Request: fold
Amino acid sequence: VLIENKSALASGNRALRDGRYAEAIPLYASALLDMPELGKTLAFNLQWAHQRMAAMTAQANARCLGRITQQELTGLAAGSRPADGELISSILFPRAGHAESTLASDHVRVLQVIDGPDWLMQAITFVAGKQYAQVELARPTLMNFVFGVLYKQIWNARVVVCADDGNGANAGARLASIEKLRGTAWDQHVDGMAAMFDPVGEPRPARLGKAARQLVARLNSPLLMAFLHEVKRPRRDAPAPAREVACGGGWMPFSMRSAPAPRPSVFLAAHEWQYLPAVSLIEFGGIPVGVEAAIDGAPSALPVRLLAGLRQFSALNGMSAAHGLSLRDTTGAQPIAADMPPDAATGEAHCFGPSGLRLRRAWYASARLLRMHVDTGAVSEARVLRAYQYDAGMDGQLAMVAEAPLGLGGDTALDLALLNPYLPVLLLLSDGRGQLLDLALLPFPSLLPHGLHAVEAATLDGDAMAAAAVLAQRYLDEWQQAHSAGGAFALGEYLVDVHGAIGTERIFSTDLKEWLWTVFGTRVKLWRLAEKDEGDRNFWEQACRASHATGDAKRYAEQAARERAGLRLLAPATAIPTLRALSACRVDGRNVPFRRGEYLLVTGGQGAPRYHVRVPDFTLAPERALQTEGVVRHPTILVEKKSGAGLQEGAGAAVIVFVEAGTAQQPELIYPFALDGPMPFGYQAPVQFPSVVVFMSADWPSEAALTASLESLRSQSGVTLASVNLLPAGGADTHGLQRVLAAVFPDIGTLWERTPGETESAAVIRALGQRPEQAGGHVVMMGQATLLHDSRTLAVFAHLLAHPKVASVGCPLIGRAEPKPNAAYSVQFSGLAGQSQADSEPVLAPVNLHALFPRALVPVACNGSAFVMMLETQVRRCLKQRTAAASLEEVVRGWSANLSERQMLHLQATGLTVEALGTLPGHVPGPVACPANFGLHLHLLPA
Amino acid sequence: MRICVVLPSEQQKAQAGVRIRYERITAQLQAGGHTLELVPITDFLVNIHLAYDCYLISKCYDARALLLAAQLRRAGKLVGVDLFDDYFSQADDSRFTRLRYWLRALLRNCSFVLCSTEGMRSVALQYAPDLPMHLMNDPSPGDDFAAMARALDQKLAAVRATRCIEVAWFGMGDNPNFPVGLADLSAFGAEVARLAGFGVAVHLTVLTNRRALTADRLEQLRGLGLPYTVQEWSEEAEQQLLARSLLAFLPVNAQQFSRVKSLNRAVTALSAGAQVLSAGYPLYAPLDAFVYRDARTFLADLARERLLLRAETVAQLQQHMQQLASVVNEAAGLAQFLAQLQGRAQGEDDSAYAVIHGRETTGDIHKFAQKRAALSVATPFCTLELNFDVRFAMSEAGLEAMVSTKKVALLAPAVAALLQPGKNLLTTEYKMLSVSRLKVQQAPVSGLLALNCPAADAAAYPAISTAIVDAMTAMFPGVECIFSEQSKRTPWHVPVPRVSGVAA
Reply:
């Protein structure tokens, strides 16, 4: 044996010298396994052969069995090609400004963004892994200061903070940013960090803007004002970085690179197994996933847990029988098919078995890069972790998406370059030679942090990883139940309303559609098109279709059956279905776990608020309303096709709606871009030119403001102003007000002086009593000094109020937010919605509904009295009961409680705004409980 | 025929769009006995430029073009507009009110419309269903198909050797009004990412304008999940990138603005010997035989070394280019179309014009109007301090007009009799006139204007604009009013007179 192995060593050496690296590797590997006394030499030779072989890219790729990617933790783009420099951006401050990049045109740049929930850890890792002699930080933000300190401490780099953009144009804004920073609780930290930076040098005063010079003088801090928008190449002679950093009372390694856990000296990469003599390859999904020492062994001899996991993975992906588990002799003998036991237990989600490995953290670092930390526990021998996905689109093939040796005791970081961010991930643990030891399954990886379904995990309490594991297991069990019953999923059809869509929405992504079909056998279907869009039918149908939908006849038959029997979910194009809705099993007599008008709302990027939304059914017949309106404002579930029965009561979100930010500046969105056309609404208003009575009880900041407001009322079109009534507070200059009112409305304007002790509402009642009640008349309450910049405002309100379930209508109130530099207007008030956090009782809270529901109609629990339109008959009834109330605000809120009992709604029209004049209304004092099922309810999800 | 393309500025001559659309056909037109010259609109300040037979307004989106077109038409010249960006069909978007007004007003004086695509022609038809229209495709950059065949072989050999696919994305990365460019790349980037991993690596190079590289967009790019490099666009860099790239990725979203774009980018990429992978809206359907619609098909073809564009199919591409982007055909088609129109334009007596300056206008427009013998008129919204010919201001009694003494002679005699002594502003002497004496209907808006805030102005704008047009018509009989309002933030309304054949 020894001679043979010596001969293997000699042969390996010969192959290496001749450049036959592929042959050398297995020879060395074979020798290593049996000649531990020569381990050092053999390991060196093996490594050398690996390196040389990798250099021969074409050959290496030709043998590639799938994706072989062990990307560096910090280097998504590293290694692909040399870069002159790197631009570091931070998504933690994505909205900090829209300043131009400082990219220089004559430099090739590679972008790196720090992401993830543990950004500090990532920043440390990044810095430790990227050695630079000089670092330029383009913006004076806190995050950049942290970077600067880290580069200073770890690499002793020259750190410059650019507070001027070279031409001085944005200097003021940037300096303001620094000032702002220094004025916060962080100022001590910033001062401390800034002190570590390089002293001012090469200031190039000629190019220093005036504001920048003033800043230098004011700050008297050692910030270097730099104008060279370039980053030097790494300094080769830089000192080695420190290996640990104090963190939370302990010590934490910087990164895998700077403080790697000891790794096994030898392991065989998957593509090298085929060179091993006298082994059988365990094939799964069409590629080898491990080796079996005994050639006459059988896959069924694998541990039951492994078999069950593989079976579960196979079922989830709908893998064909040809891709089942089998053995293949490396000498070229025929494969031996192996049956997987049908009664194997269902695999556990996110868990390893006896190996003791633990998936500590995992998150999406980019759209397809899943980054994970694995706790290797007490592992003391060579272990290799490989990750796989099954790509149904390429005629079915398993693909390896990661391969990494594990550290011996401690954490191992692993990057998975996923084929598809939704498809199940299989994690296989083997020894250094390839023998399978353990397995873990991520059936729905998009539940992991920063995945598109992560918001579902946020609905559970506790750690995001734990919540994702719990949900993954729950959905897997549900999926298994439905799958075993022949595809008895509760959801039959997923229909998309493409009104307003531009094709870039997530629901149209190939990844999502292929996943829906592969795992759930569900397809995306086009809801009806507006007549004007009929010409685009082919395009939208194509956009909804999965381009490589595969499957056997059974799958198609199951799909057809479920479309006949299941629920139809109709959603806007900005939504994707939740895993809860997709995996739910259809069981007769059981409530479905999701319901109409309940969904999750994700706004903006990471860190932006996420909500669990419940919208009441405010239309008598949703289907009819949809037909009339033609647009899906809120996701809805249509009746079951087969039974014709209505939806049973349930709870749970069926879709996730993404509200994209950044397509336009917020002030542009809310003002003055009123719709040119009428606001769509599912109810035809029967009244033309409705009669409107206006009551203005606000404290007017000036006669000028009142004049403007009255003139804006007079310019309203589409309504008939019956009367305009001023109800000034006691002590007001009624003569002046009367003069103004008479100037604008000489015929229909009336000023009502309040008698001593008379409340606003009592005054309104008195005013109303002076005129006969008009059926179908409308009343506008202006408790706040407001101005209507759109001449169609009252007409739209009256139109909306014609709906039999709508009691009142309001819209967001906006006000000038001076002196904010970049926002001339901001939303101040937008109706009261039931809002709750954690498990607290819902309260009425002012919510910026416009940001959440742009250009929509939103039923809220209560409208404030700042600007609201009601039916005259309702107002009379309401006020008669509540004349003792002190203010209209209280009247309106009290009235809302009464309305809720009658299942009436207040409607917010966020497609319109009115501007507040003078002092903006404050928040409603104190929480007011409201019925949870009445009006819009928002549950703020934890970040 | 002598053709004058009127551009907004001298700098515009260097823009890629101008180079592609006009310069590529210039030589061919000359060969046919025609001339095509690029003239900045500012040149019309000092020169009458009446020597041309045909004037083509290109990207001059302000009142200068409206005034110039009106004057040229009355001088008996053929005036047309070249439309290649759709800012006109978003009827529910008040940001483009000014452009919808611009097109309506311009078409009143146009004899024809030139369009870059069928989609753009559909848009134009909504505004001018009866005007003659011609579709001129963007011509391709060259016709060296032999060199293309060589380049194709070299690129394939490079992929064989390196097992790395170089992918190019090039073009404008942003638009101030629409999510395009890098937004599309981010949204459809998964199509490129899925190329990697099956025995080949992928590297993406993004070549775009610097303005587009904001933190938000860089963040979006980061989400692509594949290695990429960002470089600033230049013509030279684009040529170099396409010369070394196997594949050009051209995603297109389905919003109206993107749907009517030309085939230019695909034509450019194919002409450089790059394969094209397009995702999203099938804008490049006319080139379907050479455009991949999904990454997997491309990979499969690459493995077979039978890519859509290869040495054997170059001749077929050549035929396509002849139909869709031939310099010869496009130049000939344009010349023939214009020749048919010759003689249709008939001169008329010149009219009086007034350029009404709104909230956002420019000194250049004011100067242009006065040099072109038009009245330059300030509304109460105008904040520029210039020597206007007429100024309207709001007083308690309603609108007051100040008329430059130099223009009093143009007033209707009955109106001139109503003038009151005025005052001097800047270097202009004015006479005063109360608009209320002209029997012009005025809604009460003084209170709104006094607030001096955008919301109040928005409420008052339509009423005041209408009153000013009525007043100007009464003061200067026969005057044609042209509005100069560049504001995107004010949902303004002004009356646009209807003319035969032009939709309101």
Q: What stands out?
A: Chain A has a mean pLDDT of 69. Chain A has 25 helices and 40 strands.
